[in-house]
Write a structure and sequence with these properties.
The complex is a heterotrimer. Chain B is an all-alpha fold. Chain B has 18 helices and two strands. In chain B, helix 8 crosses helix 15 and helix 11 runs antiparallel to helix 16. Chain B starts with 7 loop residues before the first helix and ends in an 18-residue tail after the last helix. Chain C is mainly alpha-helical. Chain C is built from 17 helices and five strands. Chain C is globular. Classes of the chains: A alpha/beta, B mainly alpha, C mainly alpha. At the B-C interface, helix 9, helix 10, helix 12, helix 14 and helix 15 of B face helix 1, helix 8, helix 15 and helix 17 of C.
């Protein structure tokens, strides 16, 4: 069960924040409100009238619009086509002859009225995420919504774009529209919300006002007073383990996303890479791991050149890798825990020799790892897909940390993981550092980077803007993440 | 249509069985849940029912009795019943054993060969299907849909057949060489779509469909060429495979040959490959999550290519068994439909090696029984094709079977339909 | 084997971005130069130095275009090389397609000059024969367009053809009406389409599996009923009337084009009109916009209130109508009796045309005409006793499709959600 008797009321003209951890049930709730999922119990009242939403069609006609976390745009359509879809202006005829001019005019009108610039003729797949989000908002607004739901809208935005979005939300609320703002970021909630509902494990655990302190909100959100601080001793950096110089990488579409990155990770230290998602971090790590070919530059692991090596060779050279998307890249959900624990070791002694697998060795090692890493599973032979997100991540961590490493790369190591497992995983990462491994942590959660790292490299548009100490004030790191360098306050040209 | 006389009783019985919590009750309770075995049996049953309807509606004599159905329904019912029961009895007699022949054997008037002939026929038809079925099943486990079993089997037929009559070698060795030739031929025909998939992402369903027809056209051309074509015949038929390259068989008229033994061995080998080998680990990982496999350092491209080579080799071996065991010459239709049937066999066997073996034997039985049915009651062999297709339709849509029979949800069995993905 | 593996070229190719120098245009150019050279050198040297006559009538008589076979083979080969060279050198983008077409046409002409040298090729007969052979391919591929643009893979075109052909023969004979035949062909196509729709959309069975099994089902059912009903009493069950040929006065008198396009049966016009209608429908109407949205991103379509499954059902059934009409070709146009497995893979060539035509109506038309021409040419060559085996010409559609999906001449891209059933999470 994702949600258990949640009550929420939204007034006209208010910005109502729905705050909760990843997996708390916020999106499920809103998908029910939007008719994508059907609630088992309970009712929805719109202007005091009970409504049943069997499909988004019903929700739309009741004046509800939604901007989804994963944009609901057809990539090969133009902006105007995407906005018109489902509410097309036609000139009649059996199939509905499209009136493209009117569709286009509607887009431009809405875009102008709310100050959300979009190009109606651009193909959506060619637009940056910020622009795609504007298209989504315009799409909802052309349908004359009274209530607009925004599901984690800031996850893909820079701090600047976030500010813009917040001011758009504010001006929409001033025109009398109600806004539900789903997020897990405390600062944004405090900046914009009129009222806050906190959700934990599918239940409403409290309502709050923007005056509530961040500590109180965090405590409500996670259920107990947690310190997001990681306790650790000062680092004792040794030799250079990973050296990246002049690295240039293109993404799948051929767009340059890593543009001349230099960085060094020493043994016994954690280098954190901070940055808004989509600034080249993913591709940087993939290039180091041999999952993506670099266009130029060098990657060296203790003087050995990694350029052109396969992923298997990079792993074999002593690199451990926790990928950012656990369910896509980290585990094979249909495989057992035991099989997942040898996913990159199955062909090495003692687990395999030649073509043969040693099933006994695999099972023995699995039993050991399960207890050592506190993986909560009915048995090592259960499929990983049946475990919770935190335990799945522990499987990945256990696999990557149970062999001697020179370098550990952890991308978004605690995304979608419960608080208890976060602590465990953070401690494991620090432990790995303390035994002398070089650690590279990539996270879009600034708190996590600040907590774990001994040095922080801020990445923006494919470049490392600066390498700073974790003691630097958060606001300054935030400015760097937005591409504003400290000394000159000069804005990176658009 | 009221031809479903035998269909009614089971359903009523099941309804009663819910009351007791006895051991038997519990057993039956589980029996009537949507687990794999129940669904498979019910699918076969449903297919037979629909087949019965087809038999009746296409029989003009019986159909005419329905014109006065309201006046005298017994004519129509007994007429239908007689026809259906004779047809399906023939299906059984032709596939497993004929009670009359067994009785004759005990009386001393019969001959053991006649008694064993139905089983021999079943296994003869099953042998090549095991290989093509395994080919499809293995590829499936690696996330590839090998529709090219037909083409690979055709090429296997060609290479094995040509090796069988074009080169002279001592008995035994010649057979091994001819089988190997079939294996290699099929492997090459599988390598092509595998390589294209790995290098360019070309969807294997499209490329293998196209290669099927290309192979068949190539065969059609080849058997007309000098050196291949039988010079003493005017029609499109090749020379006969040397006796040294023929798979040893039981004494005539029994046709069953060593191919079925080979099939069992290969099934065991494929089962080992999937579950116990590092290649099997790779292909299963790539099959269910290629991103994770790639991240763990496996080469998806290499796995796809190897997988299609092995799958093609298996289908090619099926073609070789067909030529060296049953056909002994190349003709335009030498491979029959074994590649496409292999697809159905794999689906029926749920892409598990041993399941595929049993499914192939079931299909072989239907085919062998169908022959008798055609000769005896004059019901076209095509009925067997319909039955085979229907069985797989029901197997592939367990939700449909579940809805028809009001089955309970199975506790553990997953009724997940097979992987569905786009081009 | 791959137990203890090392990196190979393949590993890296997964990660490699496309090479800058060998752009699509350059690869095409190089390919054209190579086939042009083959044409000029091999065809040219093999060709007889005699006149090749391309007559404008249906036989050897009358006006003709003539050229020396050897000279023509070399000339057109050189033209193909020149077109390829231009592509290699790099020309403006808008000329690319034109040059590509020119090169391919020149190659075909070079081949024809070689084959026809000393003989004659009736152009009208070739053109109308190509169109006739292409007819079921056009309709089948259009059925595929309707299904696949809305996200349902249709490999059951073959089965729809067979059911359509069978229905047309049976009902056409019983009712002694060709129009009743056409209607029941459509019903036959819709029967298979509805099975496809229910199993794929409602029961979420893998769409390729459904398609393949439905083909077998159609093969079995029609074969069974053929042997039980039609074979014993062909006069009663299997002698349907032919679809009449109509002639449009005036237009039919235009040389070459007239007899091909305006003195033919209704099905040809229907197919050509449908190409235009479906093209306009897909690009210019609400139905088309929604269909494409459902095929590309069904969740997005759902969130704006479009009934994804409903639209898919409708389009698959419409596809059944079109493919069923294509089935009528086999028993009401090309022959006048049903026979077991008489479609003989035409449904798969239609599938090839759909893919080769990049899932668009006009692309499908072009591909179908090309494949129809290849088949007609194969028939012609085996009739004049050419050394080129007709089996190899018949392979052309299949090989062309493999080349197309392998991206050797530019990528073909299926609708993003093609074959993926829509399930609400």
């Amino acid at each position: 069960m994702a949600n258990d008797h949640i009550d929420i009321t939204v007034e006209p003209g208010e910005v109502h924040a729905l705050l909760g951890e990843n997996g708390a049930g916020k999106s499920t709730l809103m998908n029910q409100l939007y008719g994508l999922l059907q609630p088992d119990e309970g009712e929805i009242l719109v202007d005091g009238e009970a409504k049943v939403f069997r499909s988004p069609r019903d929700a739309i006609s009741a004046g509800i619009g939604m901007v989804h976390q994963h944009f609901m745009l057809v990539p090969v359509f133009t902006v105007a086509e995407n906005i018109a879809l489902g509410a097309e202006e036609t000139r009649g005829g059996p199939l509905g002859w499209l009136d493209r001019r009117r569709n286009r005019r509607d887009v431009l009108e809405t875009s102008k009225r709310y100050g959300l610039p979009v190009d109606p003729d651009a193909l959506v797949e060619n637009l940056p995420v910020g622009a795609q989000q504007r298209v989504e908002i315009v799409k909802a607004l052309t349908r004359d919504v009274d209530l607009l739901i925004l599901d984690e809208p800031t996850a893909v935005l820079t701090p600047q774009e976030t500010d813009e979005l917040l001011s758009v939300m504010r001006s929409l609320a001033e025109t009398g529209k109600s806004i539900v703002f789903i997020t897990h970021k405390l600062r944004e909630v405090k900046a914009i919300a009129d009222r806050i509902t906190v959700i934990r494990r599918g239940r409403t655990v409290g309502t709050a006002t923007p005056d509530t302190s961040e500590d109180e909100l965090a405590a409500l959100m996670v259920g107990r007073d947690v310190s997001l601080e990681v306790t650790k001793t000062p680092a004792d950096p040794g030799r250079e383990v990973l050296k990246v110089s002049g690295l240039v990488v293109d993404d799948d579409r051929g767009v340059r996303v890593v543009d001349g990155v230099d960085l060094v990770v020493r043994s016994g230290e954690v280098l954190g890479i901070a940055g808004v998602q989509g600034n080249g971090q993913t591709e940087l790590v993939e290039a180091i791991m041999g999952l993506r070919l670099a266009r130029a530059g060098k990657v060296e692991l203790e003087d050995a050149d990694l350029a052109g090596r396969s992923t298997k060779q990079v792993l074999g050279a002593g690199v451990g890798y926790i990928p950012e998307d656990r369910s896509l890249d980290g585990v094979v959900k249909d495989f057992t825990v035991a099989e997942n624990l040898v996913l990159d070791l199955y062909d090495r002694e003692p687990f395999g020799s030649g073509l043969k697998l040693n099933l006994k060795a695999i099972a023995d090692s699995a039993a050991e790892r399960v207890s050592q890493f506190d993986i909560r599973t009915p048995s090592p032979q259960s499929t990983v897909g049946t475990l919770s997100g935190g335990n799945q991540q522990k499987v990945v961590v256990a696999r990557e940390m149970s062999r001697p490493l020179k370098l550990l790369i952890a991308s978004q190591p605690t995304r979608g993981v419960d608080v208890g497992s976060i602590e465990f995983i953070h401690n494991q990462i620090i432990h790995e550092r303390d035994v002398g491994t070089a650690v590279l942590v990539v996270s879009s959660e600034l708190d996590e980077v600040v907590g774990l790292a001994d040095r922080i490299a801020v990445m923006y548009r494919g470049r490392i803007l600066a390498t700073v100490s974790p003691d630097m004030p958060r606001e300054e790191i935030g400015l760097l993440m937005a591409g504003i360098t400290g000394d000159t306050q000069e804005e990176d040209s658009e | 249509m009221t031809t479903e006389a035998p269909a009614a009783p089971p359903e009523k019985e099941k309804a009663k069985e819910e009351k007791e919590e006895s051991f038997l009750g519990l057993f039956l309770h589980n029996l009537w849940s949507a687990n794999t075995v129940t669904v498979t049996i019910l699918s076969i049953f449903l297919a037979l029912v629909i087949g019965a309807v087809l038999i009746v509606v296409s029989d003009s004599a019986v159909l005419s009795t329905f014109s006065y159905f309201t006046a005298r329904p017994s004519d129509a019912l007994t007429g239908s019943w007689d026809l259906i029961s004779r047809a399906y009895a023939d299906l059984f007699k032709g596939a497993i054993f004929d009670p009359a022949a067994i009785q004759a054997l005990f009386n001393g008037t019969g001959d053991w060969k006649t008694a064993l002939n139905p089983l021999s026929e079943t296994l003869t038809y099953a042998a090549p299907l095991v290989f093509t079925g395994l080919s499809v099943a293995l590829a499936f486990r690696g996330g590839l849909f090998n529709i090219g079993g037909q083409g690979q089997a055709v090429i296997g037929c060609i290479t094995a057949g040509v090796a069988g009559f074009a080169i002279g070698l001592p008995a035994g060795l010649h057979l091994v060489v001819a089988l190997a030739a079939g294996l290699i031929g099929g492997a090459l025909w599988g390598f092509l779509p595998g390589l294209l998939k790995a290098r360019t992402g070309a969807h294997e369903v499209i490329t293998t469909i196209m290669l099927n027809y290309t192979a068949t056209l190539f065969l059609g051309w080849l058997i007309l060429q000098n050196g291949i074509r039988d010079p003493e015949r005017t029609d499109a038929i090749s020379k006969t495979v040397d006796s040294s390259a023929i798979l040893p068989a039981m004494p005539a008229p029994l046709r069953v040959h060593l191919g079925i033994v080979l099939a069992v061995i290969v099934t065991a080998g494929v089962a080992w490959l999937i579950n116990r080998s590092s290649f099997g680990f790779e292909l299963r990982a790539v099959g269910v999550n290629q991103n994770a496999a790639k991240t763990a350092g496996m080469s998806v491209a290499k796995t796809y290519t190897m997988l299609m080579v092995v799958a093609g080799g298996l289908a090619g071996l099926g073609g070789a068994v067909q030529v060296l065991g049953t056909a002994d010459k190349l003709t335009g239709q030498v491979a029959g439909n074994i590649g496409f049937d292999g697809l159905l066999v794999a689906l029926l066997g749920r892409n598990k090696p041993w399941g595929t073996l049993f499914a192939a034997i079931l299909y072989g039985a239907l085919r062998a029984g169908g022959n008798l049915m055609q000769v005896d009651v004059g019901i076209s062999l095509e009925l067997v094709t319909v039955l085979q297709a229907l069985i797989v339709i029901f197997i592939a849509a367990p939700a449909l079977v579940k809805a028809i029979f009001q089955l309970r949800d199975a506790r553990s069995a997953r009724l997940g339909t097979s992987m569905a993905k786009g081009w | 084997m791959s137990g203890v593996s090392t990196a190979t070229a393949e590993d890296l190719s997964e990660a490699t971005a496309p090479d800058r120098f060998w752009s699509r245009q350059r690869r095409l150019g190089a390919a054209l130069v190579i086939i042009g050279l083959i044409a000029a050198v091999i065809f040219g040297s093999l060709a007889e130095s005699a006149t090749a006559r391309f007559t404008l009538s249906e036989d050897a008589e009358g006006a003709a275009l003539s050229i020396n076979g050897q000279f023509g083979a070399i000339l057109f080969g050189v033209i193909a090389v020149a077109a390829g060279g231009a592509l290699l050198a790099g020309v403006a983008k808008r000329w690319q397609t034109l040059l590509l077409c020119l090169g391919i046409v020149a190659f075909v002409f070079s081949f024809l000059c070689w084959q026809v040298a000393g003989k004659f090729l009736p152009l009208v007969d070739t053109a109308s024969g190509s169109l006739e052979l292409a007819l079921p391919l056009i309709l089948g591929a259009l059925a595929g367009v309707l299904c696949e643009r809305s996200g349902v893979v249709n490999v059951a075109i073959e089965g729809q053809f067979l059911m359509g052909a069978f229905g047309a023969a049976l009902v056409g004979t019983l009712a002694t009406s060709v129009w009743a035949g056409v209607v029941s062909a459509i019903v036959g196509g819709v029967i298979i389409a509805s099975l496809l729709a229910v199993l794929a959309i409602r029961f979420l069975v893998d769409q390729v599996v459904v398609g393949i099994v439905l083909n077998l089902f159609a093969l079995g059912v029609t074969g069974f009923l053929y042997e039980r009903l039609m074979q014993p009493d062909a006069l009663k069950y299997n002698s349907p009337p032919r679809l009449p040929e109509w002639r449009i006065p005036g237009l039919a008198d235009i040389p070459v084009v007239g007899p091909v396009l305006f003195e033919t049966n209704l099905l040809v016009w229907l197919a050509l009109i449908l190409v235009v209608v479906i093209h306009l429908g897909l690009t210019r109407t609400r139905w088309g916009l929604r269909t494409r949205a459902v095929g590309e991103h069904p969740t997005a379509a759902d969130t704006v209130g479009i009934r994804v499954r409903g639209l898919r059902y409708m389009n698959v059934l419409l596809g059944g109508v079109v493919a069923g009409a294509g089935g009528a070709y086999f028993t009401l146009v090309s022959t006048s009796a049903f026979n077991k497995n008489m479609t003989a893979g035409a449904g798969f060539i239609a599938l090839a045309a759909l893919i080769f035509g990049r899932w668009t109506p006009f692309g499908a038309l072009g591909a179908a005409l090309f494949f129809g021409f290849a088949q007609k040419l194969a028939n012609y060559l085996s009739a004049v006793g050419s050394p080129v085996p007709n089996q190899f010409l018949n392979m052309l559609p299949y090989i062309a499709t493999i080349v197309a999906v392998a991206g050797l001449v530019g990528r073909v891209r299926a609708p993003a959600a093609d074959g993926v059933p829509y399930v609400k999470s």
